[in-house]
């Protein structure tokens, strides 16, 4: 089937006039066709309204008159509803959607009518609760095919992202044009990856809030962010695994970077509940690499086939890359992201020796002993710094210090640490503490005078109180945004085994702020 997956805008409007207006908007937004959900039109009169709608169309249209028993808005007898669907076909609607329950009789009736209309019939079935087993899905698809459908449409609900795996498998084996979609936030990739698996169409809304089913992305996101019209069977899939992931900027960053460097790849949000199950189900070679975020960075160490020594020391993997032999390699790009930014800051200040890391021999004070604190402490240690860890909970500072060969101090000692040339302060605590931007400082401004460079892992706001005061006291400051940019560049380079479009990625991230 050499068919390009179509992008369909589902139109839900309360009036015919409004639906006509939305048809125009859908075309302008890049939709290939529209679905006219006439069950949403108040006081819908098929005889008058269908001709108006179909005459006004500038794109091919599906006419759908969904009854409440299939999750739609139509309440009433079946006879007038089915009559309206017949009328839509008689009027030459490009597609008419018929629910599985009534499809056999409906299609038989069409065939006995010897109408000249070229209308194609989509026979649909929706499960608003869950996704059946592979066997049940197969049986359901066979039932739909048996009605004489031109196009099969099976829609289920994702209770877990792995449900999408079964549905995509069914899709990729389909013998006749098929639409399979999985509703809900955990089903999102079924909508984005439909073109890769040979789906007949996928839905994108005109705007968020105008969904006709849960989990539909917008047309703009499908077309502009995910470049859905470029996705094909060979497209490699990357994504961010987390829970939650809705707020992730990854897709806004990696997708344009793939486009810029000419990679046939897409980067999607992956709302996962169990990392092991996810990796087991999506084990095709085209699922090529993942960013890993909270709460899976520790699980990823265990699940990767091989882990870089640094990621193992830090105890966190933020990048998984599938090698050509199918094995997963685990890396941590947060560490190099932060440390390389700090090294560049020291170089800019003229505090670098000609060889090796500018951190060698310097005192590097880390505040915090959580994930980011560990990455900073280990990263500084391998670069030859004398590392001091301070933390509110001294025991945790002590354990981190012991594991990386650093020295631990209680937080109260922070202000009393002796000064040394090229001293660095790195604040790793409460990453993402926004909007608590002016939380009480741990150090008075005067105590910052001994530092040549101050780093803050927080990047919202770009200039935290700590960085502002450090700058006032004459230090070079490095914002967490630098760590974010560089960890993303590091991931992209691991994903593609080639150079990242650094300036593009930097300008996109800076544009977020
Ligand atoms: C902000 O800080 C206050 C006081 O330290 C705390 O009670 C509150 O939970 C914090 N809010 C967030 C969103 O972290
Ligand atoms: C480190 O960052 C956190 C979060 O922004 C902040 O509350 C804390 O005061 C900072 N530490 C110092 C020493 O300023």
Within the largest sheet, what's the order of strands? Answer: 7-6-5-4-3-2-1-8
The fourth-level CATH homologous superfamily of the largest domain is Aldolase class I
* Category from helices, strands and their pairing: alpha/beta
Estimated helix fraction: 25-40%
Keywords:
single chain; alpha/beta; 2 domains; elongated; 513 residues; binds 2-acetamido-2-deoxy-beta-D-glucopyranose; 8-stranded parallel β-sheet; 37% helix; 6-stranded mixed β-sheet; Rossmann fold; TIM Barrel; 19% strand; 20 strands
Description:
By secondary structure, the chain is an alpha/beta fold. It has two domains: 6-232, Aldolase class I (TIM Barrel), CATH 3.20.20.70; 335-485, 3-Layer(aba) Sandwich (Rossmann fold). The chain is built from 18 helices and 20 strands. The strands form three sheets. An eight-stranded parallel sheet has the order 7-6-5-4-3-2-1-8. Strands 10-9-11-13-14-12 form a six-stranded mixed sheet. Helix 5 (134-146) links the parallel strand 5 and strand 6. Helix 9 (250-260) packs antiparallel against helix 18, helix 13 packs across helix 14 and helix 17 crosses helix 18. It is elongated. Mean pLDDT is 94; it is low at 432-437. Residues 433, 436, 439 line the site of one 2-acetamido-2-deoxy-beta-D-glucopyranose.
């Amino acid at each position: 089937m050499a068919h390009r997956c179509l992008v369909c805008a589902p139109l839900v409007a309360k009036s015919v006039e409004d639906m006509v207006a939305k048809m125009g908007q859908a075309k302008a937004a890049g939709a290939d066709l529209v679905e006219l959900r006439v069950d949403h039109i108040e006081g819908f009169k098929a005889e008058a309204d269908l001709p108006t709608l179909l005459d006004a169309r500038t794109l091919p249209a599906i006419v759908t008159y969904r009854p409440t028993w299939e999750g739609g808005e139509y309440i009433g007898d079946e006879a007038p509803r089915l009559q309206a669907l017949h009328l839509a076909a008689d009027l030459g609607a490009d597609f008419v959607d018929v629910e599985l329950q009534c499809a056999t009789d409906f299609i038989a009736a069409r065939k006995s009518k010897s109408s000249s209309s070229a209308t194609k019939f989509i026979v649909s079935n929706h499960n608003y609760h869950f996704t059946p087993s592979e066997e049940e899905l197969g049986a359901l698809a066979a039932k739909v095919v048996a009605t004489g459908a031109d196009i099969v449409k099976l829609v289920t609900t994702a209770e877990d992202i792995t449900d999408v795996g079964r549905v995509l498998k069914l899709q990729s084996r389909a013998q006749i044009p098929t639409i399979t979609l999985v509703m809900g936030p955990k089903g999102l990739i079924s909508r984005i990856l439909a073109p890769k698996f040979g789906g007949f169409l996928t839905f994108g809304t005109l705007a968020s809030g105008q969904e006709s089913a849960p989990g539909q992305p917008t047309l703009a996101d499908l077309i502009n962010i995910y470049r859905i019209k470029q996705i094909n069977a060979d497209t490699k899939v990357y994504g961010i695994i987390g829970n939650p992931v809705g707020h992730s900027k990854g897709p806004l960053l990696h997708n344009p970077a793939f486009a810029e460097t000419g990679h046939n790849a897409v980067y999607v949000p992956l709302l996962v509940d169990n990392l092991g199950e996810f990796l087991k189900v999506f084990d095709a070679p085209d699922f090529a690499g993942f960013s890993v975020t909270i709460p899976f960075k520790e699980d990823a160490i265990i699940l990767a086939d091989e882990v870089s020594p640094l990621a193992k020391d830090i105890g966190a993997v933020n990048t998984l890359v599938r090698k050509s032999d199918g094995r997963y390699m685990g890396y941590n790009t947060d560490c190099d992201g932060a440390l390389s930014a700090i090294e560049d800051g020291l170089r800019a200040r003229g505090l670098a020796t000609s060889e090796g890391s500018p951190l060698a021999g310097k005192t590097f004070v880390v505040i915090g002993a959580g994930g980011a604190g560990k990455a900073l402490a280990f990263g500084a240690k391998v670069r030859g710094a004398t590392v001091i860890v301070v933390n509110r909970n001294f025991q945790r500072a002590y354990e981190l210090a012991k594991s990386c060969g650093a020295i631990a101090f209680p937080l109260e000692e922070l202000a009393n640490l002796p000064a040394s040339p090229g001293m660095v302060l790195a604040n790793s605590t409460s990453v993402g503490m926004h909007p608590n931007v002016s939380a009480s400082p741990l150090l008075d401004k005067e105590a910052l005078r001994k530092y040549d460079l101050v780093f803050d892992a927080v990047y919202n706001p770009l200039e935290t109180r700590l960085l502002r005061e450090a700058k006032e006291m004459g230090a070079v400051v490095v914002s967490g945004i630098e760590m974010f940019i560089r960890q993303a560049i590091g991931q992209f380079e691991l994903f593609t085994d080639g150079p990242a479009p650094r300036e593009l990625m930097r300008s996109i991230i800076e544009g977020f702020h």
